[in-house]
Amino acid sequence: MNRISTTAAIIGGGLIGCASALFLRRMGIETLIIERGNCGACASGVNFGGVRRQGRARAQLPLAMRAHEIWSELPAWIGTDGEYMRSGHLKLARSLSDLQALADYRDRVSDFDLGLQILEGAAFRRRYPEFGPGVIGGSLCPEDGQANPRLVAPAFARAAQSLGARLLAHTRIMEAAPRAGGFALRTEQGTCIHADFVVNAAGAWGHDIARLFDEDLPQTPGYPTMAVTEPLPCLLGVSLGVEGGGFYARQVERGNVVMGGGFGESVDHDLRARPGRAPMQRIAEQAGEILPALRHAHLIRFWSGVEGYTPDKQPYLGPSTKHSGLIHAFGFSGAGFQISPAAGEAVAQLLAHGSAPLLDAAFSPGRHTTAATNAKS
Ligand SMILES: Cc1cc2nc3c(=O)[nH]c(=O)nc-3n(C[C@H](O)[C@H](O)[C@H](O)COP(=O)(O)OP(=O)(O)OC[C@H]3O[C@@H](n4cnc5c(N)ncnc54)[C@H](O)[C@@H]3O)c2cc1C
Question: What Pfam families does the annotation carry (predicted)?
Fold first, then answer.
């Protein structure tokens, strides 16, 4: 039987696991990533590519602001810019109450340097003539943007490896248990891994890993539906969302418009996902309503991915309340792409120093248990 020892074992080679590995290696901590398939092949590599702070809950903004800095220095961290562009993120309003909600959000987060601008009426139309008559305004975050997840996610894995992180790809963790002075993990192939620390970065499967440690961290899988058009002339300069959700779009430099909205369905018991028929139709309809130039565009591909959603849409990002040395980092609820570099840095700080300055109590893995206990007493 194979035996491996390491200081830090990271379960899951998505962006969260690989960013954690990168920061751990920069601190000189021995690190092993264990990934069931290929690094970045799940949510981290198939997502929409929105790199936005606008719309996030306040608790996430300190991490999102730190991530914003890291994104701007991406080539220095991972050797590629990942097609990252600060195109701006425009959240559209289709009613007066949407506009009010956008203005309320701007006021609630005014102590963060997001530079949100509410645009409406003639000024909005002059600046954005491309939108249909149902769109009456929007909130622009000029420095938010977009990137190509297919480039970014594997690049984090390569960067961590080039700094000395070891990778066991195509290796699934089947069993885990605390042992004196650390943890014992067993892979599907029978390899035993002893680690002083374990990071649970298993994404939509993070609750399964938590259960191996006898922890119940509720999470539900969801399968965002994505679509892309043929290459088109330039028609959309910003990354787009709508107040209330349900549709988002961005145009890449090659001309394709990437869009998303609604949820698909599970395949192979949540190992994979496929886009749903109704959301596919709804994306096409909304695209034509919001951006009339897309009415006759050909949609050349649809896809989906598996993402883990927590009950309050905040990640589990912090130390286990049961086992010292176990850190949970999953449940990013549809918004983990932008924040992942800072989440990885926070994981490394927690592991090395026992605390991470940008982590909020709202991310505590014990919050649901504590709330249930308080409700009973
Ligand atoms: C279609 C889609 C669109 C999205 N759009 C955006 C967006 O525009 N902006 C944004 O900020 N976020 C977006 N997200 C969310 C974002 O992609 C995720 O929050 C983020 O990638 C989560 O990263 P992760 O590393 O936690 O998970 P993952 O990338 O899923 O990685 C988890 C890894 O753990 C591995 N694993 C699981 N179980 C085991 C095991 N037992 N042993 C070993 N390995 C295991 C898996 O194989 C997987 O590779 C989107 C998500 C999806 C699915």
Answer: DAO (PF01266)
